[in-house]
Amino acid sequence: MAFLDLEELTQDEKLLREEVHRFAEEVVRPASIELDRMPAKERVKPDSPFFKVMKQMKRLEYHKILIPHEKGGLQLTPRQAYIFWEELGWGSTGFATALGVDMIPFTVITYFGSKQAYEELVEPWLKRDDWIGCWGVTEPEHGSDYLIMLREEESLVEKMGRGNVVAEKDGNEWIITGHKSSWVSAAPVATHCGLHAQVKEGKTLAHGLFCVVPLNLKGVAKGEPEDMLGMRDCPQGWVSFDHVRIPEHYVVVAPGPFYGIFCDQLLCLTSVTVGAFSVGLARAAFEEALKYARERVQGGAPLIKHKNIKLKLYEMFEKVEVARAYVRKAMEYTYSRLYKGTFDASPRHARAAQIFAKKVAYEVAHDALQIFGAYGLHKEFIVQKLFRDARSLLIEDGTVEVLSLEAADDIIENYEKEYYNAESITRRFQEYVTEIEQKERR
Ligand SMILES: Cc1cc2nc3c(=O)[nH]c(=O)nc-3n(C[C@H](O)[C@H](O)[C@H](O)COP(=O)(O)OP(=O)(O)OC[C@H]3O[C@@H](n4cnc5c(N)ncnc54)[C@H](O)[C@@H]3O)c2cc1C
Questions:
Q1: Is 424 inside any structural domain?
Q2: Smallest CA separation from ligand 1 atom 45, residue
Q3: Cys-Cys with 353: which of 12, 154, 275, 363 at CB 3.0–4.6 Å?
Q4: Contact, 229 vs 395, CB < 8 A?
Q5: Could you tell me if 284 and 408 lie in one domain?
Q6: Residue in 196, 234, 402, 409 to alter for ligand 1 test, most ligand atoms within 8 A of Cβ
Q7: How many domains does one find in the chain?
Q8: pTM over 0.90, yes/no
Q9: Across 58-72, 74-88, 257-271, 422-436, least confident range
């Protein structure tokens, strides 16, 4: 469905929107509805629509949108990336999540890993359509805690307990042991995990590392897909590690001061991305409601003639527009920082984008369902799926409450600073890059 965008888009941006929208409408959305209605275990069988759509996305090279051209990618501009994520989220926030987490392990290697890791892991992933990544962060005992414990406060381990997944160095290898939560998106179907682990003797989760673990290694186990209320088109499940050995170069971000910055900035990136596909969901719900309200006659007139429905539709439109304007800005700011390698994206702005867009998605989907009346609760209409997915988004990638508390701390500490510690972060990042280069020369 076309709509007036207040931003003047270039011809390329318009074409991109059309292309991704068509794919979202004709391929992603029908498959996501089919998956939503399937029993959990059926959704991960080899002939499942999940794999068909993932393979199609890879053939269209959608997994390469953040990878620089010189590394074999498509690297969309930040504004193109926003358009991409909103349209994909319009089709399905489950598939948008699946693609997002697929990209994490390999994109992180591209930006921070060694040449060897790039050749062994990223090059095949760029070419193949059957490698799927996931992102292992949260643990059975550390859901929201994982976000909080990435601060360098040593008392946190005493207060909240040690990380469940730990990493221990053994010669040229690292040994990974422990269990990630049951909610890891795409884990039941993933071939590789971008994994956060605490160093065995680390004082907080900030004393950790980020590594990529091929999930066919000895000692890895994965759970069945969980039977969830929403986001059923992206299977969630646990992944566990029993003394899994990985070579040193699969540790992409090593323990040290840069790890905290990396986590912080990675969360900025995921925040604006979840924000963008939440706007897509909100727009989808609004458009469903508008279409239905034009057609459904009650009280002798189409619903759009009734003042309460008119006001609701206006409020829904207003929320979608404001969310798009803000999230697009926040994404442009955040993605451009990644591309420039300055690593000074602003957590409070990125979190605000995610929190605001998730709330908008939930409120708009809620109002859309109300406009549909009882039909809104019926499986025949997509609006109930959008509502359940929007409800799940309030928890995915951090609950809105905990993200808000995190953003509040950043506002209180840093509001008057024009830059987010740009100078010291850039210096620490440069030191880290030099360290990797020296290691590779040795
Ligand atoms: C659809 C979906 C996809 C997901 N995908 C992934 C994934 O790909 N990878 C991954 O690692 N994880 C994933 N998760 C897990 C997700 O990040 C966690 O569910 C989330 O961070 C919350 O953790 P929890 O569920 O353990 O809730 P808890 O942390 O137990 O929180 C329970 C409640 O307490 C509140 N609360 C908790 N701590 C505090 C605090 N300190 N102060 C105030 N309030 C607090 C929370 O706001 C919440 O309301 C996913 C979850 C969902 C729903």
A1: yes
A2: 402
A3: 275
A4: no
A5: yes
A6: 402
A7: 3
A8: yes
A9: 422-436
